[in-house]
């Protein structure tokens, strides 16, 4: 898997469609990959909290087949990227900067960024700090004001288990890693990877995010001009539909789509994939891509 270096840490990513084959080869040799100038219409997919880029692989493949250059990435502390135990390394702001660093590495001047949950909030940070790098935003299940209590209730027990029960969680992780991947369906492995990983860095991720800014303030969000497609669903206290609706009202160029459930895009993706693909076509048609920068 190719990677680039951000503030001394290795960040892993994968390209689907439109990317140079040399990137993957360089990554396999264990070096920081250097790509040719970007081709295609770049779309960067950001995963959810404690998950990995694997959660977006089926969507990446589907959207790449529609002519997009899709890049998935493991944010620091997740998946195949470095996983330091320093909580100060983890924040939404830093995650947004990592995505911009990936764009710089690949020579991408502008991209559409799609994020889920944690990734959605990281995308909002890019809109706040580097809006000129965004062609558009796809925000799935943002965590804003109405979801803070549900998030605290859901993740505090996880934080306690990873922090104070680390020896036990290491044994659980070892047992989970012994389960052959071939015995589980695709998303079963994506979820079990939550348990397979070393618990210490996961605790650092949660602590860093808990004590930092979750999202740009609503006053700031109202200034975002980036075209946005927002996906939300009901009956989820961590990602309440009211947060998605509130964000759609705040952003001047946003459109809201209601998913049928938390898992529709994963288990029955056809309708939402078509909605996302149509949004990508609209945004690129309205604002054609400029010539890509050469990588530094």
Summarize the structure.
This protein has 296 residues and is α/β, with parallel strands linked by helices. The chain has twelve helices and eight strands. Helix 6 runs antiparallel to helix 7 (186-196).
Model description:
This protein has 296 residues and is of the alpha/beta class. The chain has a single domain, classed as Alpha/Beta hydrolase fold, catalytic domain (Rossmann fold, 3-Layer(aba) Sandwich). The chain has 12 helices and 8 strands. An 8-stranded mixed beta sheet has the order 1-2-4-3-5-6-7-8, with helices on both faces. Helix 4 (118-129) links the parallel strand 5 (111-116) and strand 6. Helix 3 (92-106) crosses helix 4. The longest helix has 17 residues, at 148-164. The two termini are 21 Å apart. 42% of the residues are buried. Mean pLDDT is 91; it is low at 19-38.
């Amino acid at each position: 898997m190719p990677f680039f270096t951000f503030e001394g840490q290795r960040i892993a990513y994968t390209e689907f469609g439109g990317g140079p084959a040399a990137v993957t080869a360089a990554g396999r040799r264990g070096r920081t990959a250097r790509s040719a100038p970007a081709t295609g219409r770049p779309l960067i997919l950001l995963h959810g909290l404690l998950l990995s880029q694997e959660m977006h692989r089926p969507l990446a493949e589907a959207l790449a087949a529609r002519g997009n250059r899709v890049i998935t990435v493991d944010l620091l502390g997740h998946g195949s990227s470095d996983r330091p135990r320093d909580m100060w390394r983890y924040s939404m702001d830093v995650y947004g900067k990592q995505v911009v660093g990936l764009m710089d590495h690949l020579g991408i001047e502008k991209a559409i960024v799609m994020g889920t949950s944690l990734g959605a909030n990281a995308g909002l940070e890019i809109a706040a700090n580097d809006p000129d790098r965004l062609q558009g935003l796809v925000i799935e299940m943002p965590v804003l004001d109405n979801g803070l209590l549900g998030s605290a209730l859901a993740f505090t027990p996880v934080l306690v288990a990873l922090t104070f029960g680390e020896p036990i969680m290491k044994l659980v992780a070892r047992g989970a890693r012994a389960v052959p991947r071939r015995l589980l369906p695709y998303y079963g492995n994506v979820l079990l990877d939550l348990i397979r990983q070393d618990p210490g860095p996961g605790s650092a991720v949660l602590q860093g995010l808990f004590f930092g800014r979750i999202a740009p303030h609503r006053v700031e969000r109202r200034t975002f001009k980036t075209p946005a497609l927002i996906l939300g669903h009901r009956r989820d206290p961590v990602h309440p539909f009211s947060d998605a609706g509130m964000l759609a009202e705040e952003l001047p160029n946003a459109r809201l789509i209601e998913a049928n459930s938390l898992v529709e895009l994963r288990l029955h993706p056809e309708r939402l994939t078509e909605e996302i693909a149509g949004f990508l076509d609209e945004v690129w048609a309205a604002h054609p891509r400029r010539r890509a920068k050469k990588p530094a």
